[in-house]
Write a structure and sequence with these properties.
CATH topology of the largest domain: FAD/NAD(P)-binding domain
Domain RsdA/BaiN/AoA(So)-like Rossmann fold-like: 5-419
Helix content: 25-40%
Strand content: 15-25%
Protein name: Aminoacetone oxidase family FAD-binding enzyme
Number of helices: 13
Cofactor: FAD
Radius of gyration: 25 Å
Keywords: FAD, Flavoprotein
Bound molecules: dihydroflavine-adenine dinucleotide
Largest sheet: 7 strands, mixed
InterPro entries: BaiN-like, BaiN-like_dom_sf, FAD/NAD-bd_sf, RsdA/BaiN/AoA(So)-like_dom, RsdA/BaiN/AoA(So)_Rossmann
Oligomer: single chain
């Protein structure tokens, strides 16, 4: 049996980062990944440029049944710490909007940096290699390894096992629920998994009028009620809400606004979209009516303004006729009642629609849910049930917003664990 101080399962963002840091502390570290290539998710991230952190990351941008869990790891290894590492490796970077930091050249720069950090810690890497079993060793007290692993390359003994196998998103590049299943088998509760940062879909009959709008994009405010599981106890939380770009697709909605809100959306719940966050349409329509000879469709296009593409403005208006029959697009504005115009304006400032699902793990950037944080130490990411077993990165029930937060969690949780090994 080969022996290591630490075996890290999963050579993705969190696993490689943790392995390098642990190796540099003098520990004998083995990283195992079942995929031939490491860190494929980093490679495809941020449109190939990897949004590797967010300068403004705080615990407030993370979802978890325990909203305080991420606090300690995020405070002990910050976006500025990771940026300093990126700069030490001479990687050129730039800031997009809202604190998001990207590589100038390629996401591969981050992968190469992580591999160099592993080399500096003399980390052993086995890939592709499958882990068939992980079990706490029966006689660990007698100075023997605490864990035994069966792998494609033979049995391995380790004092610590770090599970960094991520979530279920993008199965075609090797995502599995290995970590969650292992955790469950060893007695940990799992917060149910669901695709997050994912496009939302609608009933095809409801969506038919909007299909020709695929590709249309605009800035909106989108909101949905805060799911009960994410609400602080005994306090009714405000709805989750984002002001971001929305993108129409053939099957529904996508774009940053929808990816963000999807992490909070629960089946059968509605989304509320404000198509003109800067304009009170009820007021504008009633003002436009005074002395007007215009048709509703013309006045409507003007009221929505340039921020809303005309194709969307007119399609949306046509779909509302069923709600208020007098609101035919060719009706004269002057003939319409104020209260009908108010209803129309309010309907666009609070467009309420109910998705019928998501595009699933094939399109989800992350997996929400995972190993229940109540089973883990927030300082070391070590299991409270199985000493020496750690869970880091996306396998844990901590999910970041869109914008570099999920990688920051991978780095912060990976470092918190490495320092404790
Ligand atoms: P990660 O998924 O990185 O690594 C898990 C590793 O475990 C993989 O190498 C996998 O092969 C391995 N593994 C799985 N099962 C195994 C098994 N049974 N045995 C052995 N190995 C196994 N985030 C962000 O902050 N900024 C961004 O720009 C993006 N962009 C982005 C784009 C796309 C398309 C996706 C899908 C995701 C993002 N993300 C992102 C999210 C980010 O990629 C993600 O949160 C982190 O990679 C999670 O890091 P982990 O190390 O936890 O898992």
């Amino acid at each position: 049996m080969q022996r290591f101080d630490v075996v890290v399962i999963g050579a993705g963002a969190a696993g490689l980062f943790c392995a390098g840091a642990a190796g540099q502390r003098g520990l004998r570290v083995l990283v195992i990944d079942h995929a031939a290539k490491v860190a494929e998710k980093i490679r495809i991230s941020g449109g190939g440029r990897c949004n590797f952190t967010n300068r403004e990351a705080t615990p407030a941008q993370f979802l978890s049944e325990n909203p305080h869990f991420a606090r300690s790891a995020l405070a002990s290894y910050t976006p500025q710490d990771f940026l300093a590492l990126v700069e030490r490796h001479g990687i050129a970077w730039h800031e997009k909007h809202k604190g998001q930091l990207f590589c100038d050249r390629s996401a591969d720069d981050i992968i190469q940096m992580l591999l160099k950090e592993c080399d500096a810690g003399q980390v052993t890497r086995w890939q592709p290699c499958c882990v068939r079993d992980v079990r706490p060793a029966p006689d660990a007290a007698a100075g023997r390894p605490r864990f035994e692993l069966d792998t494609d390359r033979g049995p391995v003994g380790a004092h610590h096992v770090v599970v960094a196998t991520g979530g279920l998103s993008i199965p075609k590049i090797g995502a599995t629920d290995f970590g969650q299943r292992l955790a469950e088998r060893l007695g940990h509760r799992i917060v149910p998994l669901r695709p997050a940062l994912v496009p939302l879909t609608f009933d095809p009959a409801v969506w038919a009028p909007f299909v020709p709008l695929a590709g249309v994009s605009l800035e909106v405010t989108v909101s949905t009620p805060m799911p009960e599981a994410l609400q602080a106890k005994r306090r009714k939380a405000a709805p989750a809400s984002f002001v971001e770009d929305l993108l129409f697709t053939h099957r529904g909605l996508s774009g940053p606004a929808i990816l963000q809100i999807s992490s909070f959306w629960v089946p059968d719940e509605a989304l509320t979209l404000d198509l003109t966050p800067q304009r009170d349409l009820a007021v504008l329509l009633k003002q436009a009516k005074i002395g007007s000879r215009k048709q509703l469709s013309t006045a409507w296009g003007i009221a929505l303004g340039e921020a809303v593409p005309q194709r969307l403005a007119q399609t949306w208006l046509a779909t509302q006729a069923h709600a208020v029959p007098t609101l035919r697009p060719d009706a004269l504005l002057a003939d319409l009642r104020d209260r009908d115009l108010e209803a129309l304006g309010q309907a666009a400032n609070q467009w309420t629609i109910v998705p019928n699902g998501t595009e699933g793990y094939a399109k989800a950037e992350v997996t929400a849910g995972g190993v229940d944080t109540r089973e883990l130490s927030s300082q070391t990411l070590e299991s409270r049930r199985v000493p020496g077993l750690h869970f880091i990165g996306e396998v844990v029930d901590v999910t970041g917003w869109l914008g570099g937060y999920n990688f920051q969690w991978a780095w912060s949780s990976g470092m918190a664990c490495a320092r404790a090994l």
